[in-house]
Specification:
Largest sheet: 7 strands, mixed
Number of domains: 1
Distance between the termini: 24 Å
CATH architecture: 3-Layer(aba) Sandwich
CATH class: Alpha Beta
Order of helices and strands: HHHEHEEEEEEEHEEE
Shape: globular
Helix content: 25-40%
Bound molecules: adenosine-5'-diphosphate, magnesium ion
Number of strands: 11
Length: 188
């Protein structure tokens, strides 16, 4: 079985080969599927990351949430403690580039919210199994965050990101739903 780091490298390579039109097509189909989910329709506060290549595009999802009057909260990483804190985002200009080209909320321009107020959390990941196990980027931030999170969560993935298996560890917390361009995988 592939270890996590080998798989991360392979997946980044695979995803980097998606052409812009295909990337846009898949991202649009995934976003459209998400908007049909009851959890999306009912959620007032959406926790979501600002996508960086090669993740499914979330800019369009954030815009859609704003248009629908939802509140968008995005994570700021605290690398020392490997902790996430979610802060309000009302416009993209409240973002700054921190490390690895990731965009995070500017503290002076945004407000921290309680994790318990998030109605729907969109959990990022590089690869997923059909039983919901998630290979992240290696920080374990979401495994930690999810241990105390009781709200709804789901993940977005290109078909290429659905893999048969990987070396899951005890601390890995599965997601309950994965939306791909062609299907919504419900994990029970
Ligand atoms: N709940 C947790 N408490 C403490 N450490 C954790 C927890 N979850 C994950 N970790 C640590 O974080 C590191 C990265 O976890 P890993 O699952 O490989 O990353 P990712 O989920 O981002 O792919 C591991 O060393 C793991 O032991
Ligand atoms: Mg993990």
């Amino acid at each position: 079985m592939f270890d996590k780091n080998t798989l991360r490298k392979q997946m980044k390579e695979t995803l980097s080969k998606l052409s812009k039109p295909i990337y846009e097509d898949y991202s649009y189909k995934i976003a459209s599927r998400l908007y049909n989910e009851d959890v999306w329709k009912h959620a007032n506060i959406i926790g979501i990351t600002v996508s960086a290549q090669p993740e499914v595009d979330t800019y369009q999802i954030i815009r859609k949430a704003w248009e629908e009057g939802k509140q968008v909260v995005i994570p700021k990483c605290y690398p020392k403690e490997k902790r996430l804190s979610f802060r309000t985002l009302t416009e993209f200009s409240q973002l700054e580039s921190v490390f690895f080209g990731l965009f995070e909320p500017i503290v002076d321009l945004t407000t921290e919210i309680e994790p318990a107020s998030i109605d729907l959390l969109i959990v990022p990941g590089l690869a997923f199994t059909r039983d919901g196990y998630r290979l992240g980027f290696g920080g374990g931030y979401y495994d930690r965050f999810l241990t105390n999170y009781i709200g709804e969560s789901l993940s977005l993935a290109f078909n290429q990101q659905i893999i048969p298996q990987f070396a899951v560890e005890k601390h890995d917390i599965p997601v309950s739903k994965i939306i791909t361009p062609e299907e919504t995988v419900k994990i029970t």
